[in-house]
Design a protein that fits this description.
Blueprint: E1 8-16, E2 19-23, E3 36-39, E4 42-50, E5 55-59, H1 62-67, E6 78-82, E7 102-108, E8 112-116, E9 130-133, E10 136-139, E11 147-151, H2 154-159, E12 170-175, H3 177-186, H4 198-201
Antiparallel strand pairs: 1-2, 1-6, 2-5, 3-4, 3-6, 4-5, 7-8, 7-12, 8-11, 9-10, 9-12
C-alpha cells in the first residue's frame, strides 16, 4: 500500500526484456530482496540492486507492460518512485494500491492538467476526490465528460514526471480504492440498470 506522495524522481537505466532497471537513491535506503517499490504508480518487486551504483531491477510481465504506461518507457525517461507506507507514517496523500486501473492520455499538461480516461472509470470521479496519476496522489478539480482536470502546483511539477509530460503522453491511472469497495458492497442493494454492473463484468451475475 502506498500514499501517492512521490519520494524520488528516478530514471530508466535499461529495459532488457522483462527486466526494468531504474536509477535512484532514496528508495534504496532500506531495500531488500522482494521489497515493493511503486514505479509510476505500478507496484513492482525488487529482484536485484546495487546501493553504491544507485539502481534496482524489477521483473515486469508482458501483461503489465501492455496494461500500463511502463511499456512506453525508454532509457533516460524519468519515473516516480515511492516505497510502501509504514504504519507509523503520515498518510499525506490517500490509500494507493499500486494496481493500475487504466492508462489515460494527457489532453492539457500541468499546471492545468487535463487527462482523458476510459468511460468505465468515470463513475469513480468526484469533485475534490482523490485520483492517482503516474503514482501521484492528486485532487480532482472537475470530473469532465471525457476525463478530469487537476490543478498542479509548481512543486509537484518539479519533483514528479508531470513536469516532463506533454499533450498526448500516456499516464497510469488508479482510482480511489475506497470507491471501488463501496460500489461492490452496495451492488446487491441497488436497482439494476441497463448498464452492465461490476458483477456482470466479472461474471458473477446469473
Amino acid at each position: 500500500m502506498f500514499t501517492g506522495i512521490v519520494e524520488e524522481l528516478g530514471s530508466v537505466a535499461a529495459r532488457n526484456g522483462s527486466k526494468l532497471v531504474l536509477e535512484c537513491a532514496t528508495v534504496l535506503e532500506d531495500v531488500q530482496l522482494g521489497s515493493s517499490i511503486a514505479v509510476n504508480g505500478c507496484c513492482l518487486t525488487v529482484v536485484d540492486w546495487n546501493v553504491d551504483e544507485g539502481w534496482f531491477a524489477a521483473d515486469v510481465t508482458e501483461e503489465s507492460y501492455a496494461r500500463t504506461q511502463l511499456g512506453d518507457l525508454r532509457p533516460g525517461d524519468p519515473v516516480n518512485l515511492e516505497r510502501p507506507v509504514r504504519l507509523e507514517d503520515r498518510l499525506g496523500g490517500h490509500l494507493v494500491q499500486g494496481h493500475v486501473d487504466a492508462v489515460g492520455e494527457i489532453v492539457e499538461p500541468a499546471p492545468d492538467l487535463k487527462v482523458r480516461i476510459p468511460n468505465d472509470l468515470h463513475p469513480y470521479l468526484v469533485e475534490k476526490g482523490s485520483i492517482t496519476v503516474d503514482g501521484i496522489s492528486l485532487t480532482v478539480v472537475d470530473p469532465a465528460a471525457d476525463g478530469f482536470t487537476v490543478a498542479v502546483i509548481p512543486h509537484t511539477a518539479a519533483v514528479t514526471t508531470l513536469g516532463h509530460k506533454g499533450r498526448g503522453d500516456r499516464v497510469n491511472i488508479e482510482v480511489d480504492v475506497m470507491a471501488k469497495y463501496a460500489e461492490r458492497l452496495l451492488a446487491g442493494f441497488l436497482p439494476r440498470t441497463s448498464e452492465s454492473t461490476l458483477a456482470d463484468e466479472e461474471g458473477d451475475a446469473p
